[in-house]
Task: structure prediction
Amino acid sequence: MNTALKSVNKKIIYNYYCTWTSQKTWNCSVNPDAITAQDMRDRLGSEFLFGEKGVLNFHPECIRQDMLVVLDDGWDVAKGVTHEKDSDSASFGSLIPDAGKFPEIAGLAPYERLKALSQKVKELGYAGLGLWVPSNYFGEDVSEDYGERLKKAGAFWEERGKMCSYADIKYLKVDWGYHGRDIRYRSLMTEAVKKHSPSTLIEHVVGIYDMPYDPEPDKQESPEFLSFLDMAKRTFLVSDVYRTYDVVEKLSTATTLMRVSKLFDVGAAAGDGLAGIINVEDDVTVAAALGMSAGIMRDPCGPYYGDVTKALVWQRFSPPWRLEAENCFHSDELLCDSYFFDSPEGVWPYVGQKTIKQYAPSCISRGVPLPDVDVSQHVNGKNSENGESSEKPFVLASKNPDTLTYTVASLPRTAENKYKYRVPAKVTVKDAELTAPIGIFGTFEKLNIQFTENLNNIRVLARDMLSEECFSDITNEVSYSRDTLTIDGKLLEKTASKRAGGDLSENAVIIKLERI
Result:
Protein backbone atom coordinates (compact mmCIF):
# COMPACT_ATOMS: atom_id res chain seq x y z
CA MET A 1 0.00 0.00 0.00
CA ASN A 2 1.23 3.48 -0.89
CA THR A 3 2.56 5.13 2.26
CA ALA A 4 0.81 8.36 1.30
CA LEU A 5 -2.52 6.62 1.78
CA LYS A 6 -1.98 5.08 5.19
CA SER A 7 -4.47 6.22 7.77
CA VAL A 8 -3.22 8.91 10.08
CA ASN A 9 -2.87 7.65 13.64
CA LYS A 10 -5.08 10.21 15.29
CA LYS A 11 -4.08 10.65 18.91
CA ILE A 12 -6.99 13.00 19.44
CA ILE A 13 -10.56 12.21 18.38
CA TYR A 14 -12.64 15.34 17.85
CA ASN A 15 -15.74 13.84 16.21
CA TYR A 16 -18.55 12.59 18.39
CA TYR A 17 -22.00 11.11 18.28
CA CYS A 18 -24.36 13.27 20.35
CA THR A 19 -27.44 11.56 21.78
CA TRP A 20 -29.78 14.58 21.78
CA THR A 21 -31.75 14.06 18.55
CA SER A 22 -31.94 10.31 19.15
CA GLN A 23 -33.40 11.02 22.58
CA LYS A 24 -36.41 12.24 20.60
CA THR A 25 -36.55 9.83 17.68
CA TRP A 26 -34.72 6.57 18.43
CA ASN A 27 -36.97 3.51 18.83
CA CYS A 28 -39.89 5.77 19.66
CA SER A 29 -43.45 5.27 18.40
CA VAL A 30 -44.70 8.65 19.60
CA ASN A 31 -45.18 11.51 17.14
CA PRO A 32 -41.91 13.51 17.43
CA ASP A 33 -43.87 16.78 17.59
CA ALA A 34 -45.48 15.52 20.79
CA ILE A 35 -42.16 14.84 22.52
CA THR A 36 -40.91 17.61 24.79
CA ALA A 37 -37.38 18.42 25.93
CA GLN A 38 -38.42 16.96 29.29
CA ASP A 39 -39.39 13.68 27.62
CA MET A 40 -36.02 13.64 25.86
CA ARG A 41 -34.16 14.08 29.14
CA ASP A 42 -36.18 11.32 30.75
CA ARG A 43 -35.39 8.83 27.94
CA LEU A 44 -31.62 9.06 28.37
CA GLY A 45 -30.32 6.16 30.43
CA SER A 46 -28.86 2.66 30.35
CA GLU A 47 -31.66 0.98 28.40
CA PHE A 48 -31.68 3.72 25.78
CA LEU A 49 -27.89 3.49 25.31
CA PHE A 50 -26.92 -0.12 26.01
CA GLY A 51 -30.12 -2.20 25.89
CA GLU A 52 -30.94 -4.77 23.23
CA LYS A 53 -32.28 -1.96 21.06
CA GLY A 54 -29.95 0.63 22.57
CA VAL A 55 -28.80 3.26 20.12
CA LEU A 56 -25.08 2.64 20.71
CA ASN A 57 -25.44 -0.91 19.38
CA PHE A 58 -26.48 0.30 15.94
CA HIS A 59 -23.63 2.56 14.85
CA PRO A 60 -21.37 0.69 12.39
CA GLU A 61 -18.55 -1.02 14.24
CA CYS A 62 -16.05 0.03 11.57
CA ILE A 63 -16.24 3.71 12.60
CA ARG A 64 -16.80 3.53 16.35
CA GLN A 65 -13.06 3.97 16.87
CA ASP A 66 -13.37 7.31 15.05
CA MET A 67 -15.93 8.94 17.32
CA LEU A 68 -16.63 9.70 20.92
CA VAL A 69 -20.06 9.30 22.49
CA VAL A 70 -21.36 12.51 24.08
CA LEU A 71 -24.28 12.05 26.45
CA ASP A 72 -26.46 15.10 26.10
CA ASP A 73 -28.77 16.97 28.44
CA GLY A 74 -30.41 14.68 31.00
CA TRP A 75 -27.77 12.06 31.77
CA ASP A 76 -26.99 13.31 35.30
CA VAL A 77 -30.48 14.23 36.55
CA ALA A 78 -33.36 12.05 37.73
CA LYS A 79 -36.48 11.61 35.63
CA GLY A 80 -38.82 14.53 36.11
CA VAL A 81 -36.12 17.12 36.80
CA THR A 82 -37.11 20.14 34.74
CA HIS A 83 -35.40 23.12 33.18
CA GLU A 84 -38.25 25.59 32.79
CA LYS A 85 -36.60 28.61 34.41
CA ASP A 86 -33.06 29.83 35.09
CA SER A 87 -33.08 28.71 38.69
CA ASP A 88 -33.54 25.10 37.52
CA SER A 89 -30.02 25.18 36.05
CA ALA A 90 -28.56 24.44 39.48
CA SER A 91 -29.99 20.91 39.30
CA PHE A 92 -27.74 20.07 36.34
CA GLY A 93 -23.99 19.58 36.08
CA SER A 94 -23.18 17.23 38.96
CA LEU A 95 -21.16 15.00 36.61
CA ILE A 96 -22.51 11.99 38.51
CA PRO A 97 -24.57 9.51 36.42
CA ASP A 98 -28.10 9.41 37.81
CA ALA A 99 -28.72 6.26 39.85
CA GLY A 100 -32.22 5.73 38.49
CA LYS A 101 -31.18 6.05 34.86
CA PHE A 102 -28.05 3.91 35.30
CA PRO A 103 -29.12 1.37 37.97
CA GLU A 104 -26.33 -1.11 37.18
CA ILE A 105 -23.71 1.34 38.52
CA ALA A 106 -25.87 3.06 41.14
CA GLY A 107 -24.10 1.45 44.08
CA LEU A 108 -20.68 2.83 43.15
CA ALA A 109 -19.06 5.98 44.52
CA PRO A 110 -19.32 9.04 42.21
CA TYR A 111 -15.81 8.70 40.78
CA GLU A 112 -16.30 4.98 40.18
CA ARG A 113 -19.76 5.47 38.71
CA LEU A 114 -18.43 7.86 36.10
CA LYS A 115 -15.48 5.59 35.32
CA ALA A 116 -17.77 2.58 34.91
CA LEU A 117 -19.95 4.49 32.45
CA SER A 118 -16.89 5.56 30.49
CA GLN A 119 -15.68 1.98 30.37
CA LYS A 120 -19.04 0.66 29.11
CA VAL A 121 -18.84 3.04 26.14
CA LYS A 122 -15.26 2.05 25.31
CA GLU A 123 -16.12 -1.65 25.53
CA LEU A 124 -18.50 -1.13 22.59
CA GLY A 125 -15.55 0.05 20.49
CA TYR A 126 -16.04 3.81 20.71
CA ALA A 127 -13.10 6.14 21.22
CA GLY A 128 -14.37 7.29 24.59
CA LEU A 129 -17.02 9.16 26.54
CA GLY A 130 -17.94 12.82 26.46
CA LEU A 131 -20.51 14.66 28.57
CA TRP A 132 -22.94 17.52 28.19
CA VAL A 133 -22.54 20.00 31.06
CA PRO A 134 -24.19 23.37 31.74
CA SER A 135 -22.31 26.64 32.00
CA ASN A 136 -22.83 26.77 35.76
CA TYR A 137 -21.92 24.54 38.68
CA PHE A 138 -24.23 22.08 40.40
CA GLY A 139 -26.12 23.78 43.19
CA GLU A 140 -25.09 27.31 42.22
CA ASP A 141 -27.06 30.03 43.98
CA VAL A 142 -27.42 33.07 41.73
CA SER A 143 -28.44 35.25 44.67
CA GLU A 144 -24.86 35.11 45.97
CA ASP A 145 -22.18 37.65 45.06
CA TYR A 146 -20.74 37.02 41.58
CA GLY A 147 -17.15 37.05 42.83
CA GLU A 148 -17.95 34.52 45.53
CA ARG A 149 -19.68 32.30 43.00
CA LEU A 150 -16.61 32.43 40.76
CA LYS A 151 -14.44 31.19 43.64
CA LYS A 152 -16.85 28.33 44.27
CA ALA A 153 -17.01 27.58 40.55
CA GLY A 154 -13.23 27.35 40.33
CA ALA A 155 -13.11 24.83 43.19
CA PHE A 156 -16.06 22.88 41.77
CA TRP A 157 -14.65 22.53 38.26
CA GLU A 158 -11.19 21.65 39.54
CA GLU A 159 -12.76 18.76 41.42
CA ARG A 160 -14.69 17.77 38.27
CA GLY A 161 -11.41 17.95 36.37
CA LYS A 162 -10.04 15.32 38.74
CA MET A 163 -13.14 13.20 38.10
CA CYS A 164 -12.68 13.55 34.34
CA SER A 165 -9.05 12.50 34.58
CA TYR A 166 -9.87 9.47 36.74
CA ALA A 167 -12.78 8.34 34.53
CA ASP A 168 -10.98 9.12 31.26
CA ILE A 169 -13.63 11.59 30.09
CA LYS A 170 -12.50 12.78 26.69
CA TYR A 171 -14.84 15.71 26.08
CA LEU A 172 -17.04 18.26 27.84
CA LYS A 173 -19.75 19.88 25.74
CA VAL A 174 -20.46 23.08 27.68
CA ASP A 175 -23.91 24.35 26.74
CA TRP A 176 -26.64 26.49 28.30
CA GLY A 177 -26.65 27.56 31.93
CA TYR A 178 -26.53 30.65 34.14
CA HIS A 179 -23.35 31.75 32.39
CA GLY A 180 -24.25 30.90 28.79
CA ARG A 181 -22.69 34.09 27.43
CA ASP A 182 -20.28 34.82 30.25
CA ILE A 183 -16.85 34.42 28.65
CA ARG A 184 -15.05 34.97 31.95
CA TYR A 185 -16.93 32.04 33.46
CA ARG A 186 -16.35 29.79 30.45
CA SER A 187 -12.64 30.61 30.55
CA LEU A 188 -12.60 29.68 34.26
CA MET A 189 -14.22 26.32 33.44
CA THR A 190 -11.63 25.55 30.77
CA GLU A 191 -8.72 26.46 33.01
CA ALA A 192 -10.03 24.63 36.08
CA VAL A 193 -10.84 21.36 34.30
CA LYS A 194 -7.60 21.32 32.32
CA LYS A 195 -5.54 21.92 35.46
CA HIS A 196 -6.28 18.31 36.44
CA SER A 197 -7.39 16.75 33.14
CA PRO A 198 -5.40 18.46 30.36
CA SER A 199 -6.41 15.91 27.73
CA THR A 200 -10.15 16.53 28.17
CA LEU A 201 -11.38 18.63 25.27
CA ILE A 202 -13.57 21.59 26.21
CA GLU A 203 -16.24 22.68 23.72
CA HIS A 204 -17.92 26.06 24.12
CA VAL A 205 -20.68 27.84 22.22
CA VAL A 206 -22.04 31.34 22.19
CA GLY A 207 -25.60 30.14 21.58
CA ILE A 208 -27.80 31.20 18.70
CA TYR A 209 -28.35 34.82 17.75
CA ASP A 210 -32.12 34.57 17.51
CA MET A 211 -33.79 31.56 15.94
CA PRO A 212 -31.88 28.41 14.88
CA TYR A 213 -31.18 30.10 11.56
CA ASP A 214 -29.34 33.30 10.72
CA PRO A 215 -30.77 36.70 9.76
CA GLU A 216 -30.63 37.82 6.15
CA PRO A 217 -27.36 39.43 4.99
CA ASP A 218 -28.49 43.04 5.37
CA LYS A 219 -29.39 42.43 9.03
CA GLN A 220 -25.97 40.93 9.68
CA GLU A 221 -24.52 44.45 9.62
CA SER A 222 -26.59 45.55 12.60
CA PRO A 223 -24.80 46.51 15.84
CA GLU A 224 -26.57 43.66 17.62
CA PHE A 225 -25.34 41.01 15.20
CA LEU A 226 -21.82 42.42 15.11
CA SER A 227 -21.74 42.34 18.90
CA PHE A 228 -22.85 38.71 18.74
CA LEU A 229 -19.97 37.92 16.38
CA ASP A 230 -17.50 39.60 18.72
CA MET A 231 -18.80 37.40 21.52
CA ALA A 232 -18.31 34.36 19.29
CA LYS A 233 -14.71 35.41 18.68
CA ARG A 234 -14.07 35.79 22.41
CA THR A 235 -15.72 32.43 23.10
CA PHE A 236 -13.50 30.75 20.51
CA LEU A 237 -10.48 32.15 22.33
CA VAL A 238 -11.18 29.95 25.40
CA SER A 239 -12.24 26.80 23.50
CA ASP A 240 -10.58 23.62 22.33
CA VAL A 241 -13.61 23.28 20.11
CA TYR A 242 -16.12 25.95 19.13
CA ARG A 243 -19.50 24.60 17.99
CA THR A 244 -21.53 26.52 15.42
CA TYR A 245 -24.66 25.46 17.33
CA ASP A 246 -28.26 24.51 16.60
CA VAL A 247 -29.63 24.70 13.09
CA VAL A 248 -32.83 23.79 11.28
CA GLU A 249 -32.15 20.43 9.63
CA LYS A 250 -33.65 21.37 6.27
CA LEU A 251 -31.39 24.43 6.00
CA SER A 252 -28.44 23.21 8.04
CA THR A 253 -25.78 23.42 5.33
CA ALA A 254 -26.46 27.03 4.35
CA THR A 255 -26.71 28.18 7.98
CA THR A 256 -23.54 26.35 8.97
CA LEU A 257 -21.53 27.65 6.02
CA MET A 258 -22.58 31.22 6.78
CA ARG A 259 -21.55 30.84 10.43
CA VAL A 260 -18.20 29.36 9.40
CA SER A 261 -17.56 32.24 7.01
CA LYS A 262 -18.35 34.75 9.77
CA LEU A 263 -15.80 33.10 12.05
CA PHE A 264 -13.26 33.59 9.26
CA ASP A 265 -14.26 37.25 8.91
CA VAL A 266 -13.80 38.09 12.59
CA GLY A 267 -10.45 36.30 12.77
CA ALA A 268 -11.56 33.70 15.31
CA ALA A 269 -8.76 31.67 16.91
CA ALA A 270 -8.17 29.71 20.11
CA GLY A 271 -5.79 30.70 22.85
CA ASP A 272 -2.37 29.13 23.35
CA GLY A 273 -2.49 25.50 24.35
CA LEU A 274 -6.05 24.98 23.08
CA ALA A 275 -6.95 22.96 20.00
CA GLY A 276 -8.92 25.64 18.11
CA ILE A 277 -11.23 23.34 16.12
CA ILE A 278 -14.58 24.32 14.60
CA ASN A 279 -17.38 21.80 15.16
CA VAL A 280 -20.10 22.02 12.50
CA GLU A 281 -22.46 19.69 14.33
CA ASP A 282 -24.26 17.24 12.03
CA ASP A 283 -22.97 18.64 8.70
CA VAL A 284 -20.51 15.79 8.41
CA THR A 285 -19.49 16.38 4.78
CA VAL A 286 -18.70 20.01 5.59
CA ALA A 287 -16.50 18.74 8.43
CA ALA A 288 -14.67 16.35 6.11
CA ALA A 289 -14.23 18.94 3.37
CA LEU A 290 -12.99 21.80 5.56
CA GLY A 291 -10.91 20.02 8.21
CA MET A 292 -13.47 20.57 10.96
CA SER A 293 -15.12 18.22 13.44
CA ALA A 294 -18.66 16.86 13.57
CA GLY A 295 -21.17 16.50 16.36
CA ILE A 296 -23.21 13.72 14.78
CA MET A 297 -26.89 13.97 15.62
CA ARG A 298 -28.59 11.67 13.12
CA ASP A 299 -29.86 8.20 13.99
CA PRO A 300 -27.58 5.37 12.87
CA CYS A 301 -30.23 3.72 10.67
CA GLY A 302 -31.35 6.85 8.81
CA PRO A 303 -31.10 7.34 5.02
CA TYR A 304 -28.22 9.86 5.25
CA TYR A 305 -26.07 7.99 7.75
CA GLY A 306 -23.76 6.82 4.96
CA ASP A 307 -22.38 10.37 4.87
CA VAL A 308 -21.19 9.90 8.46
CA THR A 309 -19.28 6.73 7.64
CA LYS A 310 -17.64 8.30 4.58
CA ALA A 311 -16.67 11.49 6.39
CA LEU A 312 -15.11 9.66 9.35
CA VAL A 313 -13.19 7.28 7.10
CA TRP A 314 -11.78 10.24 5.17
CA GLN A 315 -10.75 11.99 8.36
CA ARG A 316 -8.42 9.10 9.09
CA PHE A 317 -6.38 10.59 6.25
CA SER A 318 -7.25 14.24 6.82
CA PRO A 319 -8.10 14.86 10.49
CA PRO A 320 -9.40 18.24 11.72
CA TRP A 321 -6.87 21.01 12.17
CA ARG A 322 -6.59 24.25 14.09
CA LEU A 323 -8.31 27.31 12.67
CA GLU A 324 -5.94 29.93 11.29
CA ALA A 325 -8.39 32.40 9.83
CA GLU A 326 -5.84 34.12 7.60
CA ASN A 327 -5.62 30.93 5.51
CA CYS A 328 -9.39 30.67 5.09
CA PHE A 329 -11.41 32.14 2.25
CA HIS A 330 -14.99 32.49 1.14
CA SER A 331 -16.58 33.94 -1.98
CA ASP A 332 -18.53 37.17 -1.99
CA GLU A 333 -21.26 35.48 -4.00
CA LEU A 334 -24.07 34.23 -1.79
CA LEU A 335 -26.44 31.39 -2.63
CA CYS A 336 -29.87 31.11 -1.07
CA ASP A 337 -31.49 27.95 0.24
CA SER A 338 -35.13 28.09 1.29
CA TYR A 339 -37.78 25.89 2.84
CA PHE A 340 -41.43 26.27 3.80
CA PHE A 341 -42.10 25.06 7.34
CA ASP A 342 -45.64 23.92 8.04
CA SER A 343 -45.05 23.19 11.72
CA PRO A 344 -47.43 25.01 14.07
CA GLU A 345 -46.33 27.85 16.30
CA GLY A 346 -44.49 26.69 19.40
CA VAL A 347 -43.05 23.56 17.74
CA TRP A 348 -39.39 23.34 16.73
CA PRO A 349 -38.03 25.15 14.79
CA TYR A 350 -40.48 27.81 16.02
CA VAL A 351 -41.09 29.44 12.67
CA GLY A 352 -44.74 28.69 12.08
CA GLN A 353 -46.28 28.68 8.62
CA LYS A 354 -43.59 30.49 6.66
CA THR A 355 -40.71 30.16 4.22
CA ILE A 356 -37.25 30.68 5.67
CA LYS A 357 -34.35 31.76 3.47
CA GLN A 358 -30.73 31.07 4.35
CA TYR A 359 -27.76 32.59 2.53
CA ALA A 360 -24.19 31.34 2.43
CA PRO A 361 -21.03 31.86 0.33
CA SER A 362 -21.04 29.78 -2.83
CA CYS A 363 -17.45 28.64 -2.19
CA ILE A 364 -15.30 28.22 0.93
CA SER A 365 -11.69 27.03 1.16
CA ARG A 366 -8.94 26.46 3.72
CA GLY A 367 -5.28 26.58 2.77
CA VAL A 368 -5.97 26.74 -0.98
CA PRO A 369 -7.52 29.23 -3.41
CA LEU A 370 -11.28 29.27 -3.83
CA PRO A 371 -12.62 26.77 -6.39
CA ASP A 372 -13.94 27.92 -9.74
CA VAL A 373 -17.49 26.73 -10.42
CA ASP A 374 -19.09 26.77 -13.87
CA VAL A 375 -22.80 25.99 -14.26
CA SER A 376 -23.26 27.56 -17.68
CA GLN A 377 -24.42 24.19 -19.00
CA HIS A 378 -27.65 24.61 -17.05
CA VAL A 379 -30.44 26.53 -18.72
CA ASN A 380 -31.10 28.36 -15.46
CA GLY A 381 -27.50 28.29 -14.35
CA LYS A 382 -27.02 32.03 -13.96
CA ASN A 383 -28.19 33.74 -10.85
CA SER A 384 -31.55 35.39 -11.01
CA GLU A 385 -31.78 39.17 -10.66
CA ASN A 386 -32.15 38.96 -6.88
CA GLY A 387 -29.11 36.68 -6.65
CA GLU A 388 -31.04 33.70 -5.29
CA SER A 389 -29.58 30.96 -7.46
CA SER A 390 -30.76 27.42 -6.84
CA GLU A 391 -28.85 26.01 -9.82
CA LYS A 392 -25.37 26.03 -8.36
CA PRO A 393 -23.85 23.81 -5.69
CA PHE A 394 -21.99 24.96 -2.61
CA VAL A 395 -18.37 23.98 -3.30
CA LEU A 396 -15.70 23.51 -0.61
CA ALA A 397 -11.98 22.78 -0.88
CA SER A 398 -9.09 22.39 1.55
CA LYS A 399 -5.54 21.09 1.95
CA ASN A 400 -4.54 19.62 5.28
CA PRO A 401 -1.35 21.42 6.42
CA ASP A 402 -0.06 18.30 8.19
CA THR A 403 -0.87 15.46 5.78
CA LEU A 404 -1.18 17.52 2.54
CA THR A 405 -4.33 15.56 1.71
CA TYR A 406 -6.73 17.54 -0.48
CA THR A 407 -10.52 17.52 -0.21
CA VAL A 408 -13.19 18.89 -2.52
CA ALA A 409 -16.94 18.68 -2.03
CA SER A 410 -19.93 19.70 -4.11
CA LEU A 411 -22.86 19.96 -1.72
CA PRO A 412 -26.57 19.58 -2.52
CA ARG A 413 -29.06 22.41 -2.23
CA THR A 414 -32.50 22.94 -0.75
CA ALA A 415 -35.00 25.23 -2.44
CA GLU A 416 -38.70 25.33 -3.16
CA ASN A 417 -39.06 22.43 -0.71
CA LYS A 418 -36.76 20.20 -2.72
CA TYR A 419 -34.45 18.89 -0.02
CA LYS A 420 -30.81 17.99 -0.79
CA TYR A 421 -31.03 18.01 -4.57
CA ARG A 422 -27.80 17.74 -6.52
CA VAL A 423 -26.54 20.23 -9.11
CA PRO A 424 -23.67 18.91 -11.27
CA ALA A 425 -21.14 21.61 -12.15
CA LYS A 426 -17.72 22.00 -13.75
CA VAL A 427 -15.42 22.59 -10.80
CA THR A 428 -11.74 23.55 -10.82
CA VAL A 429 -9.61 23.33 -7.68
CA LYS A 430 -5.99 24.35 -7.27
CA ASP A 431 -2.74 23.53 -5.42
CA ALA A 432 -3.18 19.78 -4.90
CA GLU A 433 -0.09 17.74 -4.04
CA LEU A 434 0.82 14.81 -6.28
CA THR A 435 2.12 12.79 -3.31
CA ALA A 436 -1.05 12.93 -1.18
CA PRO A 437 -4.50 11.36 -1.63
CA ILE A 438 -7.52 13.41 -2.66
CA GLY A 439 -11.01 13.00 -1.21
CA ILE A 440 -13.92 13.88 -3.49
CA PHE A 441 -17.48 14.23 -2.16
CA GLY A 442 -20.68 14.88 -4.09
CA THR A 443 -21.84 15.14 -7.67
CA PHE A 444 -19.90 16.85 -10.47
CA GLU A 445 -20.29 17.35 -14.18
CA LYS A 446 -16.50 17.59 -14.47
CA LEU A 447 -13.71 18.05 -11.95
CA ASN A 448 -10.41 19.71 -12.83
CA ILE A 449 -7.64 19.34 -10.26
CA GLN A 450 -4.60 21.56 -10.65
CA PHE A 451 -1.43 20.26 -8.97
CA THR A 452 1.68 22.01 -7.72
CA GLU A 453 3.82 20.12 -10.27
CA ASN A 454 3.48 18.73 -13.78
CA LEU A 455 1.78 15.38 -14.30
CA ASN A 456 4.04 13.68 -16.81
CA ASN A 457 4.37 9.88 -16.48
CA ILE A 458 1.66 9.27 -13.93
CA ARG A 459 -0.84 6.58 -13.12
CA VAL A 460 -4.25 7.54 -11.67
CA LEU A 461 -5.93 5.19 -9.20
CA ALA A 462 -9.36 5.52 -7.64
CA ARG A 463 -11.57 3.78 -5.13
CA ASP A 464 -14.84 4.25 -3.37
CA MET A 465 -14.37 5.85 0.04
CA LEU A 466 -15.49 2.65 1.79
CA SER A 467 -13.92 -0.05 -0.38
CA GLU A 468 -10.88 -0.59 1.86
CA GLU A 469 -8.00 -0.17 -0.56
CA CYS A 470 -9.50 -1.84 -3.66
CA PHE A 471 -8.09 0.71 -6.11
CA SER A 472 -8.85 0.69 -9.81
CA ASP A 473 -6.54 2.08 -12.46
CA ILE A 474 -8.50 4.83 -14.22
CA THR A 475 -5.57 6.38 -16.09
CA ASN A 476 -7.11 5.63 -19.50
CA GLU A 477 -10.46 7.12 -18.47
CA VAL A 478 -9.16 10.54 -17.42
CA SER A 479 -7.19 13.24 -19.16
CA TYR A 480 -4.36 15.44 -17.99
CA SER A 481 -2.31 18.25 -19.42
CA ARG A 482 0.67 19.85 -17.73
CA ASP A 483 -0.45 20.31 -14.11
CA THR A 484 -4.20 19.64 -14.48
CA LEU A 485 -6.09 16.36 -14.12
CA THR A 486 -9.63 16.23 -15.51
CA ILE A 487 -12.13 13.64 -14.31
CA ASP A 488 -15.62 13.26 -15.73
CA GLY A 489 -18.44 13.29 -13.21
CA LYS A 490 -19.88 10.06 -14.61
CA LEU A 491 -16.58 8.31 -13.89
CA LEU A 492 -16.66 9.53 -10.30
CA GLU A 493 -20.22 8.28 -9.95
CA LYS A 494 -19.25 4.90 -11.41
CA THR A 495 -16.30 4.62 -9.02
CA ALA A 496 -18.43 5.41 -5.99
CA SER A 497 -20.24 2.47 -4.44
CA LYS A 498 -23.80 1.98 -5.55
CA ARG A 499 -26.18 3.24 -2.91
CA ALA A 500 -28.36 0.47 -1.54
CA GLY A 501 -32.09 0.90 -1.19
CA GLY A 502 -32.91 3.81 1.09
CA ASP A 503 -29.34 5.16 1.19
CA LEU A 504 -29.38 8.83 0.20
CA SER A 505 -25.77 9.65 1.07
CA GLU A 506 -23.40 11.48 -1.27
CA ASN A 507 -20.87 9.86 -3.58
CA ALA A 508 -17.41 9.78 -2.02
CA VAL A 509 -14.21 8.74 -3.79
CA ILE A 510 -10.48 8.70 -3.04
CA ILE A 511 -7.97 9.14 -5.84
CA LYS A 512 -4.19 8.95 -5.74
CA LEU A 513 -1.51 9.57 -8.35
CA GLU A 514 1.70 7.61 -8.77
CA ARG A 515 4.74 8.28 -10.90
CA ILE A 516 5.40 5.52 -13.40
User: Anything to note?
Assistant: The chain has twelve helices and 25 strands. Residues 146-167 form the longest helix (22 residues). The first strand starts at residue 16 and ends at 18.
